[in-house]
Design brief:
CATH class of one domain: Alpha Beta
CATH topology of one domain: Heat Shock Protein 90
CATH superfamily of one domain: Histidine kinase-like ATPase, C-terminal domain
Helix content: 40-55%
CATH architecture of one domain: 2-Layer Sandwich
Number of strands: 12
Largest sheet: 5 strands, parallel
Radius of gyration: 41 Å
Bound molecules: adenosine-5'-triphosphate, magnesium ion
Strand content: 15-25%
Structural class: alpha/beta
Number of helices: 11
Distance between the termini: 56 Å
Order of helices and strands: HEHEHEHEHEHHHEHEEHEEHEE
Strand order of the largest sheet: 2-1-3-4-5
Length: 423
């Protein structure tokens, strides 16, 4: 369309005035804009002042010859794509190989055959036009691709922050339990300790003034203050504090393992540790209605980006919990089954993690869409539809695979394969 409106622009370079005249007339009559120059120096200047759509270039000219003009143009980025057709007299020795090597796209011979010259120019102009269009489209595609990648990495970041938000809430709740446990136990412990201190004082008095009556009083004091029960309570309160403190330290350790903020490089990790820490952080979300069954095999450690792999487990386990939550008729205890193992596929060894749930399941007709970005069946505000697409790109970044299966019981099973024996 545009090319119809804007006449195409031809530069003719020839040191023979008669030839220049013929070519000038020929292409002007055919509707092109034509400039004609008699030597190589002027040709380069003409190209600088306005870039032509095609150049017809004589080979044998005084001063700079056609090959040299062609070479110089091909060495400059902004002129490289201009198609150059060499003109050579049949009587001259013409090195075709040299012509193509220096960057020419074609040649015509003198005396000029009008129809042939016109046809060749037309063809190369069309080719050039298509090429420019393709290049332009390519640039647009590259730009779009770059923008898409930037958008994707921002989304991954957003998703990470969102799951961290969910996590912090869960962790805060999780920590609250054992800490309250510890706190109330220490209150009980304090009253017991006060009693034992008073008992110690009474015992000191008894040893300084020992007589039967004081001994009787001492025994009476012990009985009146439930010595035996207090002793038992003392032991159990200490045990409670130990349990609470252990649990607190487990949660803190899991959080550290999960976020792995200090680990941006690949690390050799134990996948079970990764799964366990993720499960622990999600505990509060599922503990009331889901049982987690683990069947861990003896698998070697895996080289990976730990925080990213944790994000994969977090997304898949969260989906499993949500799929069970969405069930109308829940069984008394629903199940998430985590099984690990190692498998060989196409001569490659993989660690495999299968996470199966007894949730609502995935209908057959959407099975091939669930890994697409923004595909979600959840209510607005509940799901963005990025979890699985992020899992897929993380797993593929590790040269692994992620697969999904519908289970006979109606639930879903994800299988994550991560290569073993990689650096
Ligand atoms: N375990 C599962 N059981 C049933 N359906 C699932 C399960 N896992 C994924 N899906 C389906 O795949 C869809 C896409 O999952 P994905 O994790 O990518 O997004 P989402 O969970 O909807 O939202 P987001 O994870 O971004 O909060 C879900 O909306 C759901 O329909
Ligand atoms: Mg999800």
């Amino acid at each position: 369309m545009n090319t119809e409106e804007k006449k195409e622009n031809i530069l003719v370079v020839d040191d023979t005035p008669a030839n220049l005249q013929i070519l000038l007339r020929l292409f002007r009559d055919a509707g092109y804009r034509v400039r004609a120059v008699p030597d190589g120096e002027k040709a380069l200047k003409a190209v600088e002042s306005e870039v032509p759509d095609i150049i017809l270039l004589d080979i044998n000219m005084p001063g700079m010859d056609g090959y040299e003009v062609c070479r110089q143009l091909k060495n400059r980025d902004q002129f490289r794509s201009i198609p150059i057709i060499f003109i050579s007299a049949l009587s001259e020795t013409f090195d075709k190989v040299k012509a193509f090597e220096s960057g020419g796209v074609d040649y015509i011979t003198k005396p000029i055959q009008i129809e042939e010259a016109r046809a060749r120019v037309k063809t190369h102009l069309a080719l050039h036009r298509y090429q420019s269009q393709i290049e332009e489209k390519n640039q647009q595609l590259n730009k779009a691709m770059k923008e898409l990648k930037e958008a994707q990495s921002q989304l991954v970041q957003t998703e990470k922050m969102a799951s961290l938000g969910v996590l912090t809430a869960g962790v805060a709740h999780e920590l609250n339990n054992p800490i309250t446990y510890i706190y109330t136990s220490t209150l009980g412990l304090k009253s017991n300790v006060d009693f034992f201190i008073s008992l110690q004082e009474k015992f000191n008095e008894l040893t300084t003034q020992y007589n039967k009556k004081n001994l009787e009083n001492f025994r009476q004091y012990m009985n009146d203050h439930d010595y035996q029960e207090r002793l038992e309570e003392f032991h159990s309160l200490v045990a409670n504090i130990i349990t609470g403190a252990k649990r607190t330290s487990e949660i803190v350790k899991s959080l550290r393992l999960f976020t792995r903020l200090d680990e941006d490089d690949k690390k050799i990790i134990d996948l079970h540790e990764s799964i366990d820490s993720t499960l622990l952080l999600l505990y509060n979300k599922y503990k009331d209605f889901i049982e987690v069954e683990k069947a861990y095999a003896n698998i070697p450690p895996v080289s990976c980006y730990p925080a990213k792999i944790n994000q994969v487990f977090m997304n898949i386990l969260s989906n499993a919990i949500e799929a069970i939550e969405l069930k109308d008729q829940k069984r008394k205890r629903e199940l998430i089954h985590v099984q690990t193992g190692s498998v060989k596929e196409n001569q490659n060894d993989y660690a495999s993690v299968k996470i199966a749930d007894t949730g609502i399941g995935i209908p057959e007709n959407i099975l091939d869409k669930i890994f697409d970005p923004f595909f979600t069946t959840k209510e607005i505000g509940k799901g963005v539809g990025l979890g699985l697409s992020i899992c897929k790109s993380i797993v593929e970044e590790h040269n692994g695979k992620i697969m999904v299966d519908r289970k006979k019981n109606g639930g879903t099973c994800f299988n994550i394969l991560l290569p073993l024996n990689t650096d």
